[in-house]
Amino acid sequence: MIIEIEKLHLFYTEFHALKDVNLSIPEKSVTAFIGPSGCGKSTLLRTLNRMNDTIPGVRIEGKVELQGKDIYSSELEVEYLRKRVGMVFQQPNPFPKSIYDNVAYGPRLHGVGKKSELDAIVEKSLRSASLWNEVKDVLKKSAWSLSGGQQQRLCIARALAIEPEILLMDESTSALDPISTTKIEELTRELCRNYTIVMVTHNMHQAARISDRTVFFLNGEVVESADTQMLFSNPVDQRTEDYISGRFG
Amino acid sequence: MNLPVTNKQGGPPGKSGKWGKHVIEEARGRAFVYFCVLLMVVTIFSIVFFIASRGLTPFISQGVSVKDMLFGLKWKPEGNPPLFGALPFLFGSFVTSVLAALIAAPLGFCASIFMTEIMPKFGRTALQPAIELLAGIPSVVYGFVGLSVVVPFLRDVFPGQGIGILAGAIVLSVMILPTVTTIGTDALRSLPSGLKEGSYALGATRWQTIYRLILPTALPSLLTGVVLGIARAFGEALAVQMVIGNAPHIPRSLFESATTLTSIITLEMGNTTSGSLHNNALWSLALILLLMTFLFVFVVRMLERRVKR
């Protein structure tokens, strides 16, 4: 178990967004968070790399441990945490720089300055995101000239360039067309051989297709957490069954 | 549609034929807007035409050469022969404006970043109104403050009388600070929020995000503010005139008196008769000012195009 979440509560000023979440996330696998809008699945994802820190009024109780270390302890630098826990967002958000500079942005932040090293990292990351063949001749072109699907894979490459252990994907295919979505799903399956992937999706079929474990959220609570096959074929909780059979959400 | 309803004015229903109410309303609105646009265009072209026709007369029919005006060092319009060298004014205008921009740009950028990134709430509630206030202060007040604060300070600290290029530039820099800051703040606020998140998610600190991502991205917009600031400084007459000393020569140091295009126009225009060579030569200076303004607008357009790309 690479991440252990214990008795986690999260408040947006008064609103109790996450209620007593207990969850373990296994290493080198894909874990999918599913549930209706506003159920807290994205909020939980963003607590894993402390992106909620930037939102004023957020209060967190409980413990989130990454390999046995509390990520909310004052000894851990948030920048160091985010280097280990990468994130890909819902909307592709490449920087208005060249493709090369987008991927090199992270390594440069963390002190890689040598051109040869950067070149190697950029190529490796773009290959891992299966984008290299499409962009290898246009590395100096603006990242904004790419298509939406390519931009999202560039964002994945950008996240991989700092060699995280965990990759968080926040509905990363919901703004993309079906072909791009398929590509990123395939990519996710490949990446989970080397990375732990935690994804939020509002698409149950996507969770069923590519995740190893699925966690079902409702109103800020974890209703059920199980192997994906188990959860979809044989849900324990009535609410899970109602949701996956399409009775609400 | 066929229900017997009356409209609000109580008129008969269903009479919205070819000349129905909305058609007339539409036509009236359109006529009004067209009239306003026409008025504006006519005004602008009239100004340009007027200044150009007066300003070009010395070159066309009164025997002054463009070269002498742009590069001549002596301004003696009543002399014999009269001399119309405007280089000292051009030089003074340029140096004070650019110097003012060099002082105001870093301050303005920092203020913008402070207001958007560091303390958005305090920035919006306290700093923004203060800066807007700064923009509303009349230029004579700036000039007066310059004369009673900046000039004595410069006189005490540096050699010379205190009045001169640097004093003018300092006063101007405060005057254009609101322009630079306001445009900079708007530019930073309009950046897509995903950018910053993307940077933080890669483990960047706030400072790294600001100088590696935000500043480079917003730079063309920030420079737009600076150019507009220079344009404003270039056209400012009163405040500069009060502290620059109005000596028509090219200064050898920042602490020497100089003068600007606008100063010379305001100082001498009242003492000339319309149509005289001296009067027309002042219009030529105004024409130069106008052309400079066009140049600044052009530069701003170029920068904006870069933003869009």
From TrEMBL, chain A:
Keywords: ATP-binding, Nucleotide-binding, Transport. The keyword Zinc does not apply. One of its GO terms (cellular component) is membrane. The keyword Coiled coil does not apply. SUPFAM superfamilies: P-loop containing nucleoside triphosphate hydrolases. Pfam families: ABC_tran (PF00005). GO terms for biological process: phosphate ion transmembrane transport. Residues 3-244 form the ABC transporter domain. One of its GO terms (molecular function) is phosphate transmembrane transporter activity. PROSITE patterns: ABC_TRANSPORTER_1, ABC_TRANSPORTER_2. This is Phosphate ABC transporter ATP-binding protein. It comes from Cohnella fermenti. The lineage of its organism: Bacteria, Bacillati, Bacillota, Bacilli, Bacillales. The gene is pstB.
Automatic annotation (TrEMBL), chain B:
It comes from the Bacteria. It is found in: Cell membrane. Its main location: membrane. The lineage of its organism: Bacteria, Bacillati, Bacillota, Bacilli, Bacillales. InterPro entries: MetI-like, MetI-like_sf, Phosphate_PstC, Phosphate_Transport_Permease. Belongs to the binding-protein-dependent transport system permease family. CysTW subfamily. One of its GO terms (molecular function) is phosphate transmembrane transporter activity. It is a multi-pass membrane protein. This is Phosphate transport system permease protein. It comes from Cohnella fermenti. Residues 90-300 form the ABC transmembrane type-1 domain. Part of the binding-protein-dependent transport system for phosphate; probably responsible for the translocation of the substrate across the membrane. The chain crosses the membrane at residues 31-52, 83-109, 130-151, 163-188, 209-231, 281-303. GO terms for biological process: phosphate ion transport. Keywords: Cell membrane, Membrane, Phosphate transport, Transmembrane, Transmembrane helix, Transport. CDD domains: TM_PBP2. GO terms for cellular component: plasma membrane. It holds the Pfam family BPD_transp_1.
